Amino acid sequence: MTPSARGRAHAMTSRRSFLKATSAGALLSSFSARAARSADHRSEFEARIARRDFRDLTKEDLPTPSLILDREIFEQNLAKMTDHSKATGLKLRPHVKIHKCVDVARRQLELGAIGLTTATIAEAELMSSSGFKGVFWTRQPAGKNNISRAVALSKRDPNFLFVVDDPVIAGQVEEAAAAAGATCTIVVDVFAGLTRHGMQPGAPALELAQKVQSSKHLRLHGLMGYSGGASHTHGWEERCKKSRDDLRGLLESVELCRKSGLPMNIISGGSTGTYNIDTENGLTELQCGSYVFMDTGYRKIGGKSSATVYEDFGPSLTVMTTVVSKRHPNQCTIDAGNKALLRPTDEAKGMPWITVENQGAEYGILKWKDGDRDLKLGERVELYPTNLDMSVNVYDRIYVARGEQVVDVWPIMGRSGAPQR
Question: 301, 233 in Cβ contact below 8 A?
């Protein structure tokens, strides 16, 4: 190749390299600009949430999947349970494991609940540190971490109470409380049908209650028995029988304790499924929690007024999703899958013709048989979840709505690691 040819080739290569570099730079610049706009939009959205500026904010503005709470149905559920409590004299200490949300708990207490029930020590710490009184932890503290935290919370908050169902744990709590200079308020957990916890009723329960009462740093407050099996028993009559049978041992234990002169300030238990059954079963307070939101699992157990649908409380919580693909007839793909806790037993709000299928970590499938039905790309579909506890646990916030308008945003208890559990 002659020197002049080599020069021309070099010039052409340099020009191509320049054009490629320019094109890549333009593409990168365009991408960076789009990313910046996206980041700005997200930042502005979060800034509006932080300053509680919900003007003109609708469901269409929200990311999906998201938890949506229908404020009107939610308030109706709260009012119905409150009215029941007032009419029967059965106190309400609702379970927060359903919502793990300070804002929901505050509304329950404003309407007359005497306290809150928690499943974990972290929930108890959260609710107590939010200024709420009468927090009741219903799982006994086993292990150094749980015992030390329960004792520390008892020292900070004299209204805090928790359960034991084993004399070994009662002894360990007494030891830790003595070392900390604290007094712990204790409820003895009695077996009521669920084999996962609870001291055997009768003499064993009495002996444990006596051990608690005789301890220097423990104060007996009463007994608890949770008939979890009754809560989802299908059919009203069957559920009544199951609840009565499960609670019989608890009530016998209460009588033994009373005859022995032990204080029985509370007899705690119950659930949303048995709230209007346990009125007759000797409890003094209810731990029900699902009534605030409801799910498809509860809705299918039947009630006093309907053999097929439990209608006492309305479904107020949904998981909102977006239709992201439509490549096959009579079905579409949504952006909620395993990670969003999608289940085939979920139901589409206002769309009884739709069935739900799980398709993977981030995808779900909605199907229908009617050829005249259809959904559009980008359309929002709200699903009633199968299980409230599990569904709420994978989200960080609840968007509260009146119709299409977003009127509030409520944080869910942090899930960033072990200290939050």
Answer: yes
CA dihedral 17, 21, 23, 27 (to 10 degrees): 160
101: tokens are: 């949300």
Q: For the domain bounded by 61-66+313-420, which CATH number is listed?
A: 2.40.37.20
Average pLDDT estimate for 88-116 = 97
Q: Is residue 19 pLDDT above 80, yes or no?
A: no
Cα–Cα dist 359/365, whole Å: 6
pLDDT band at 7 (very low <50, low <70, confident <90, very high): low
User: What is residue 267's predicted lDDT score, i.e. its pLDDT?
Assistant: 98
The ranges assigned to domains in the chain are 61-66+313-420, 71-295
* 272, pLDDT greater than 60: yes
* Rounded distance between C-alpha atoms, residue 231 and residue 242, angstroms: 9
**For residue 4, what pLDDT band results from cuts at 50, 70 and 90?**
low
User: Is the pLDDT confidence value at 23 over 60?
Assistant: no
pLDDT for 280 beyond 90: no
- Do the beta carbons of residue 252 and residue 204 sit within 8 Å? no
Q: Which CATH superfamily includes the segment(s) 71-295?
A: Alanine racemase (3.20.20.10)
**What is the sign of the dihedral through the CA atoms of 105, 108, 109 and 115?**
negative
Residues 6+ apart with CB under 8 A from 339: 361, 362, 394
pLDDT digits (tens, 9 = 90+) for 135-155: 999 999 999 999 999 999 999
